[in-house]
Amino acid sequence: MIELQEAAYGYGGGPLLSEISLRLSPGSFHFLTGPSGAGKTTFLKLCYADLLATAGRVTLFGQDTSEMSRDEIAQARQRMGVVHQDCEFLDHLPLSENISLPLTVAGRGGVEQQSNLSELMGWVGLSARADALPPELSGGERQRAALARAVITDPDVILADEPTGNIDWEMSLRLLQLLVELNRMGKTVLIATHDLGLIRAAKAQVSARVLRIAGGRLQLAGADL
Ligand SMILES: Nc1ncnc2c1ncn2[C@@H]1O[C@H](COP(=O)(O)OP(=O)(O)OP(=O)(O)O)[C@@H](O)[C@H]1O
Ligand SMILES: [Mg+2]
Questions:
Q1: Lowest CB count within 10 Å: 108, 147, 169, 206, which one?
Q2: Tens digit of pLDDT per residue, the chain (225 long)?
């Protein structure tokens, strides 16, 4: 459903990523690792067509991103939940409204909104913070809220960029559990992370492939992970 074929990207000062080929099949679970600055966030941006490949092809649900209109990209994104590394919120809206915003935007408010919202806020441990404004939240609370917001529309694909960077181990495992359960329901999951402990914990539960970006190329990480 997301496929990169010899895709390349550079911000201008030479290629950052080159000859990247990967198929994110329905129901697959991938981790993406690699040193800071290697291009993990850039890679994710290619996957949700925030950036277009400068060579090669990226297809979303069968469509070549370089040929998609803005509307087609917006439609494809409705099927994707993205947790951004720098989670941003609308600061004037309470947390609960920020988290349910994707449902509201998709015109799917009402009962579905209420039940999904309270269940998810409970899962990420934010029930008591429903009325807080985003600037009042800690870094970890923001990340937990960003994950809840990314999955509230029940997307087919979840792309998470360092979703546990500011979060204690116990809560990280809880967020991982949420992603593992969504994967068991058939969702495609890709997590970019430096947290090797998280990868090990996941591998005990699901068959996850671990990829590593280094020197602009994507490799399968060693079996020791
Ligand atoms: N908008 C941009 N314009 C120019 N260069 C950029 C831009 N965004 C990222 N870069 C550069 O591209 C390289 C890869 O950045 P990217 O954010 O993809 O790395 P990363 O692997 O996600 O790193 P981290 O682990 O620190 O999040 C970095 O050298 C960064 O400075
Ligand atoms: Mg990054």
A1: 169
A2: 899 999 999 998 889 999 999 999 999 999 999 999 999 999 999 999 999 999 999 999 999 999 999 999 999 999 999 999 988 999 999 999 999 999 888 887 776 677 789 999 999 999 999 999 999 999 999 999 999 999 999 999 999 999 998 899 999 999 999 999 999 999 999 999 999 999 999 999 999 999 999 999 999 886 556
Same domain for 166 and 185?
Answer: yes
Structural domain includes residue 86: no
Tell me the β-bridge partners of 218: 213
> 101 C-alpha to center of ligand 2: Å?
24
Ligand nearest to the CA of 194: 1
Question: Which ligand 1 atom sits closest to the C-alpha of 42?
Answer: 18
| Alpha helical stretches, state H, 81-163 | 95-105, 110-123, 139-151
* pTM > 0.90: yes
Structural domain including 216 reads: 1-79+156-225
Which residues surround ligand 1 with Cβ inside 6 Å? Answer: 11, 16, 34, 36-42, 85
Rg of the chain's alpha carbons, rounded to an integer? Answer: 17
Cα 109 to ligand 2 centre (Å): 32
CA distance 38 to 219: 12
